[in-house]
Amino acid sequence: MITYSTLIKALYLPDPEVVRLADGRIRIQDVAARAGVSAATVSLVLSERFHTRVSAGTAQRVRAAAEELGYESADKISELEWLTVVVDATAPQRLLDDALAGVLQEARREAYAVVVVPVGSGARATRAVATTIGRVPRQRVACIALSDAIDGWGLRLPESTLVVTLDDGGPSDHMHRYPRVVPESEPAARKLARVLAQRGHQAVAVASYGPAAAVATWTRSMEGAGLQVSGHVDVAPAGASRAEGELRRLLVEGHENRRTTAVICLDPRVVGVIRAVVEGNGLRVPQDVAVVVEDDGRAHDVDQLLPTSAFPAREMGRVAARLLLDDSSGGRARPRAVVRVPRTVTGDRRIQRAVTGPEDSLDLLR
Fold this sequence. Notes:
The protein is an alpha/beta fold. The protein has 2 domains: 82-178 and 313-343, 3-Layer(aba) Sandwich (Rossmann fold), CATH 3.40.50.2300; 186-307 and 347-365, 3-Layer(aba) Sandwich (Rossmann fold), CATH 3.40.50. Helices cover 37% and strands 18% of the residues. The protein contains 12 helices and 13 strands. It has helices at residues 28-35, 39-46, 56-69, 74-78, 93-109, 123-135, 149-153, 186-198, 214-224, 235-253, 271-280, 313-325; strands at residues 7-9, 82-88, 113-119, 139-145, 162-165, 180-184, 203-208, 228-234, 262-265, 290-294, 308-310, 338-342, 344-346. The chain has a 7-stranded parallel β-sheet, sandwiched between helices. A 6-stranded mixed β-sheet has the order 8-7-9-10-11-13. Helix 1 crosses helix 3, helix 5 packs parallel to helix 12 (313-325) and helix 10 (235-253) packs parallel to helix 11. The longest helix has 19 residues, at 235-253. The N and C termini lie far apart (72 Å). Mean pLDDT is 76; it is low at 1-24 and 357-366.
């Protein structure tokens, strides 16, 4: 059994005749340097063609160097099973890194080699990717992408391709063709709703940037825990100033004699608006207002101490690789199947008990 995995990067190959091995592979030149001989000598010894042309001592030294460095010949590489991972170069880098880490973890366990093919924009790039995929032997294909990316590629992937979706958007027209691994928000939303209710919060606002599929999920989860959803603030159409006014009305002035004490933030771009309202009106996070963030991979500038519904990119990568590499499935997931991987909750213990009631709805802030 082949016991190693190598990482190949085919980056918009202008000439896809050759898929070049990247840093992970030990070359003949490396073995030659370790053994103190020429590359030609290494080639003769490892191909068993040296006979009387190389001394027994030199041949032994070459073999020892090759074993020590973990050298694998081109013949063995041709025997490898390949997992081709097509990645959306426009997706958040952190999510791509996490998802690929999950894929590689499973691929190494099953002794699969992995070729990573990033797709950006442009017809030339797409043609090169298609050619590269076509030349990789004995492969199974995964795709890590935003939900609408495949539509713009003009690239027809094998029907058995398993897609890892790096957002909560609904499947695009082309993505319907493929089995998918998607994030699931509801378990994390329900857990955070229970925590908010247990800590005495009664009214919760939901803030997003543009239409978000998760709004309905979070609203349903909050209401299921007995919380009132006091409003949905959409920053994109309203603009920052108007959104700040709506949030101030909920957080400071109150709604139906009840002050909103928690905000569910469904996009990191909204955090700045929330922070401006909170700090501008003498409130504090988390003492006066609990802010919960649903991570979308772009939350690098968000306070990491905030309670978070974390995107399960690494686990999604692992699940996708397991499905593809499972011998019993022959590398094919059930057509149109959707596998859901729950988001995880971090920082829920940082949600503090709310100060609620008519007496504090306005006086608390004065």
